[in-house]
Amino acid sequence: MSKEIRVLKELGLLTQSPESVPSQHGRPFGAEHVFSGHKPLWRFCNPKLESPFTPEMRQLPVYRTLPPDSTLESAVRETRFLVFFGAGDSPELEKALAMPGTIKLVFEPDEAHLAQWLALRDTREFMNKGVFFFSGNMDALPQPLLWILPSALANSGFPVFFVQNGFEEALPGQADRLIHLMELFYYRNRIYPAQGQEFMRGRPHRPLAMHAIYDRVLHFYRNVVAQTRAGTLNDLREATSGATAMLVAAGPELDQRLDWVAENADRAVTIVVNNALKPFLSTGLEPDFVIINDTSLDSGRAFAGLKPLRRTRLVAHALSSTGDEVFPEIYFFGTDGTDFLPPRDSLLLHGSVITTAFSLAEYLGCTRAVLVGAQLSSPDPYRLSYSARSQYGNASSQPRELIDKFPQLYPARAADGETVFTSLNFYDSAVWFRDRIRMSNVEVINTSQASLIHGSGVVMDSAPRLEADPSLREQLSRVSPHVPEHSRERIASHLRREHRKWRGVQDMSVKMLAILEAGGEKGLEPARELIRIYDGDNTSFMLQRFGEFRNLVFHKRFFEGAMAADQVAGALYYFGFLKQMCGALMKELEAGLSRLG
Predict the structure, then answer these.
(1) Angle 279-281-283 (CA atoms, 0-180°, nearest 5)?
(2) Three-state secondary structure call for residue 191
(3) In Å, what is the CA distance from 118 to each residue of 2, 11, 31, 343?
(4) 378: which DSSP letter?
(5) Backbone φ, ψ for residue 9 (5° rounding)
(6) pTM of the model
(7) Calpha distance 394→426 (Å, rounded)
(8) Mind spelling out the 3-state secondary structure of 104-125?
(9) Smallest Cα–Cα separation from 230: which of 329, 309, 343?
(10) Do the Cβ atoms of 383 and 408 come closer than 8 Å?
(11) pLDDT given for residue 582 in this prediction
């Protein structure tokens, strides 16, 4: 290791892979860095979500496709996140180093080339310039690059790329691979959150207090009492040590694998994701565990219409649906943001619930996991496919021409090398899961060749042989919930306080509706003041996820309406739904207090 590289590492400015990638031929240090006009990953995102903010938010666009002839100067008008491939004294990199407020990442896979360039520079000049260097093969890092990079990088805007002349010829494939990784990093940390549960119904986004969505608040009111009678994830630690886990997801191939599942269910710990429960039950068997981590109200549909089960244990996030009386035992994990009960363990997860199922198997002490129906892909380019018996089971869409952008799904390579299609969320989940498997000590077998979960650490076998495990049923019979210590009075006091709060909001909504209906535009000023208050205390944020309320409708009428009558209609719309939301929350609180006794 050269002195300059050692100094750069000591300054915290260099991430170095243990494996260098030698250049196939030399490159001049002074060669230009040219803007990469490739088609970005986010061409598969809805263009309407590129910049879903009101002007007062003063936000950079979430993503944008820049013209292929863009320059450094034009790019920084849209983003502050600059990525350079190739270390050298190019005019573009020198200009970027002088730009305050920008983040610069410089990738140089060839360590010898980087060392030679650094020997010509004063390493200290890179301090406090917002520049960070990466050397070697990024796929050979001890931890995945996408896990190492701090998520706050994505706050600088979407990444744009500048490739040094000669770089692609000297290091074939490196620029494409690194662009793909960096765009996936940005999707994971900026685009997905901006399009997720919290914000998907909030366009256009205005300045709001954003603490908790309606779904999670409602689930908290429902679950806080259940938690006083249920177990926690902690009760399951190493409960089936050394066993094989069968992880069942709701991919379209599950229906073809149900016979195999039925034949082998008693030889493994069966962990079924919530959406795959109904297909699994169609075998006439019950799984050992069902796992749910989705906190949306919609996720509870997977349990709708089910009769009470005899032996299946539900492992649920503290803010997820629990299926009412379907499950005889519930074990909660994660936090609900309160301290009414002792802390409980959580599960490492990302994007898809199949990653949560894997973490549960690991937590139980399983040393092998067999994936069934865990595809995260679809044969249909325009529609995600699921088991026909599942909550989202559906027919394929009509054949359509591939257009390589939204609304087409993202094309990806399956385990058998064939092209399948998926959402960017599922693709990112698959990449994360592959990295997670690689770093685990669990042997993984995947039964689906059409799956995106393949590569290092994954064995492909459509019908693996599972040996009988005589001790497994005995291990499971010893699992039982240990109800955590809690104060009934403290919980009841909190629920009553919440009820009073929503009663007050409902009363104000009723008064505001009366003022608006009687006085028309005379009621606009008090309506604006009250909405401003609710924008600042999370109430408006919750309303965006309630029932049939549509923020876009409200915003166009109230904030953009040209006539006073339009604005009055917007205020009536807002307070009418707010009154309903308060009623739904109070009803849930009353039910909780009744259950608490």
Answers:
(1) 90
(2) helix
(3) 9, 14, 16, 49
(4) B
(5) -65, -40
(6) 0.95
(7) 18
(8) EEEEECCHHHHHHHHCCCCHHH
(9) 329
(10) no
(11) 98
490, two tokens: 């403290």
Site of tokens 């410089």: 106
**Tokens in use for 126?**
């890179």
Q: At 259, list the tokens.
A: 């016979």
Q: What is the DSSP letter of 129?
A: T
DSSP strand pairing (410-413 vs 313-317): unpaired
- Inter-axis angle of helices 214-226 and 564-596, nearest 10: 10
Q: How far is CA 485 from CA 10, 85, 230, 340, 478, in A?
A: 48, 56, 11, 9, 21
Can you count the helices (H) and strands (E) in the chain?
A: 19, 17
163: tokens are: 């490739």
Q: What pLDDT digit, counting tens, does each position of 424-463 carry? A: 999 999 999 999 999 999 999 999 999 999 999 999 999 9
Q: Tell me how far apart the alpha carbons of residues 205 and 178 are, in angstroms, rounded to a whole number.
A: 32
3-state SS, residue 371:
strand
Contact 506, 577 (CB under 8 A): no
- Which two three-digit tokens encode residue 547? 């029932």
Dist. CA 194–CA 199, nearest whole Å:
6
Mean per-residue pLDDT over the chain, rounded: 95
**What confidence tier does 541 reach under pLDDT thresholds 50, 70, 90?**
very high
Residue type, 580: Q
